[in-house]
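fwd from M.: "can u put these together and see what the complex looks like"

so here's what she sent:
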Amino acid sequence: MKFAIIVFPGSNCDHDAYHVAKHVLGQEADYVWHKEVSLKGFDCVILPGGFSYGDYLRTGAIARFSPVMSAVVDFAGKGGLVLGICNGFQILTEAGLLPGVLMRNKGLKFICSQVKLKVENNSTPFTNQYKPAEITDIPIAHADGSYFAEKDTIKLLEDTGRIVFRYCDANGQASDSANPNGSINNIAAIVNEKGNVMGTMPHPERACEADLGSAGGLSVFKSILRGFLK
Amino acid sequence: MTINKQVIKEHGLSDGEYARITAILGREPNLLELGIFSVMWSEHCSYKSSRIHLRNFPTKGPAVIQGPGENAGVVDIGGELAVVFKMESHNHPSFIEPYQGAATGVGGILRDVFTMGARPVASLNSLRFGSFENKKTAHLVEGVAAGIAGYGNCMGVPTVGGEVYFNDCYNGNCLVNAMTVGLLKKDKIFKGNASGIGNPVIYVGSKTGRDGIHGATMASDVFGEGGEERRPTVQVGDPFAEKLLLEACLELFKTDYVVGIQDMGAAGLTSSSVEMASRGGMGMEIDMDLVPRREEGMSAYEIMLSESQERMLLVAKKGAEEEVEKIFRKWDLDVSVIGRVVEGGSIQIFEHGKLTAEIPVKALTDDAPLYDRPSKRPDYQDELQRLDITTVPLPKDLNDTLLKLVSSGNIASKEFIYRQYDHMVRTDTVVPPGSDAAIVRIKGTDKAIAMTVDCNPVYCYLDPFRGGVIAVAEAARNLAVSGASPLALTDCLNFGNPERPEVMWQIKEAIGGIREACLALGVPVIGGNVSLYNETSGKAIHPTPTIGMVGLIDDMKYRATQWFKNAGDDIFIIGAIGKGIGGSEYLRVIHGLEKGGAPDIDLATEKKVQDACLHAIKAGIIVSAHDLSEGGLAVGITEACFNPEKLFGASVDFEMGDLRPDELLFGEAQSRIIVSVNKKDVKRLEEICVGAGAVLRRIGKVTKEPQLTINGFISADVSVLISAWKETLPAFIHNSKAGV
């Protein structure tokens, strides 16, 4: 299968996503410059982490106007798989492909750390290789990762299984102390209504090889691949 | 403005230096020329007080591709690859405006590395602040950490390691030394060289503003009261612009249009144009009207002396102008041909069509003033080195002493700081911050590089020569315990005012010590930086020659971290137990003494110990290896128990001879490494140590229960120790904010 890695000015996890798709997964991958207008020939689109437009104005707020974003919206509309990681998640919320917003962390500081996540829904195209309620290790690295949405939206997300990962402790409890950034209900990753667009603050592409301390994110990419091979 | 004595003084030039300028020009300089001489002859740019001593460093070695003198040094790591690295200080700006000072320090060192053609793959930093009691410390810690994070994270370069020290001597001058390591292909190295008559000189990056004018001169002066008034001389960083500049430059380097390139760092357009012309043995003419500017009405003086960030100067092949411009436009960066390379060896500056300054470039670089300043061993030095151990009372409760030490500022966990740094981006960090050295893998190979920064300023204060030796030895030891052979080092020599003979003595001694250790351990110096005048109201910092060292791991399967991993493993010390408590954190923290000289060190022994450890790691028998440094044996073993995955304990008991308990537990004898190994590998470890000529002694075993016992003196709960160790820094910052 073929992955598109979108490169915005200021993206900096583009190489990492490419490495996983190409060298860990052994699939095809190409960088797509943000001024491109077509995503023809790609099977999955990744909006990588980083600081698109320097996070100026608001994270993701300028990148959503990049020419490639119309193509991303079309791609998602047709059911294509779109994965937004960290800044990619922020861009997806700004672009309206996912609900809610990512606010400044509760401690007001950038946090780079391994965290534990509970897989809340393992039937999405991004998580079908995880066991039900599996606890996994994937790192975070962000200053603006506190997920917020209106009450009704949160209820809808909870009721319809759209919360994919939740920050948890070693026992799988979504406790306050296990919540690194102040996200509502410890939300770390969500999907859209159709389930084909996922936004995640934790970086699965940083946890695909044991040498890096955890391979807990590899199942995200294996899940994507499995959906394609089926 | 007429040039009078006052103006000359404000430019930091002595009467003698001014006379020399008029002799060179054969006339009085105009203000622009005076400004150019001022920054190029500043200590910061010219190294006029240190240069004759820096020549003593060994700079050659079989792997050295580029030694000192370029933007950064380059070392061969086999195959088609080389690593590029350098460390630089941003002390003065960081004290005045910590966030921007530290941020632009990171920005500057990153540019130094990518201007060589390398992609930066890791950054480190060495930070020194005043004591916890000093009112300004918390503010500086927070600002500096946030500034480094703000810039480095946005650049997508992981900040993988460093050190943080607290000491009264930095109350009036914090130190921010930033280091970056890059990777490039050996046949694609770019240098700051202007050659080829008629070749275009191209300005790329951000526009020039009025910020940072005379930053280099500020960095070459002491602070008096009210140093904060110099805030306008601190530059403001834009990491997003630099990220674009990085990608654009790397794209450009794939072409063959570039003749030479240099970043506009200290002294901005002046130093980049002058140094490039000087290295190429050429002249250069540049036109102020063509320089992209942020605001109207800037004078040539302001343009030439601005230290606006995220700018590069490059010389391209004639005819390639359009292709070069196309690449920078793609990345939305300013690009402008502002001049060309000419014959004659002078820098010629034009404004509104008129020649407004002309200076021979060699006069500004190679022929800049050079001082052999007088030096004198301080009168207080003998007293510092004297210590009668019988006058030091033995603490009643040694468990409490251990707890105080692990929770003291210099030994406590620095996670509060490094978790603000993205240390994982680029997915190569196989050993993150927290162990003795950070390790970054090189994709597509089995190799990895290990890196560390080190300097114990108390040792350097008590004995600058031996302090210099130990800084190098400890850096190499940190690499050895990680499984890496040292390749080369870069240094940041931070001292007080060199016009004081006592400070000059410290500089000479420290350089001598570094040289001796480099020769004994076979580690060349490939670049660095000197930061003098780190003193406020007549009080200098402790001599702080920070060493940044990079080592190579041929096969990354064979690497080590400092943490115990299996209960039942045997614990050994490679190296002698050693006497003495001079210069220790124990003396400083528990007894309030900075005394007793620096610990003894024998470099031949040091080499044997490191070789033995390295050999054992490569043999695959080492489960953990940890260098013993601040806090000595007791703290070293405690740290080894703090495995981030799972706490361990240790049961240590061995024959201690005639040592006092505090010497045994907390003395900082050098050349010691603690390792843990599985029982089945003990024999092999013994053989390796015999082969290397290193002393080996079994001292105990790793236990499942997180309980630490040492020779009946220590019996402590490791979970209590780790809580205290982790809590120190967050509590200090929290309490400072709350005004406690």
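replying to her w this: The mean pLDDT of chain B is 95.
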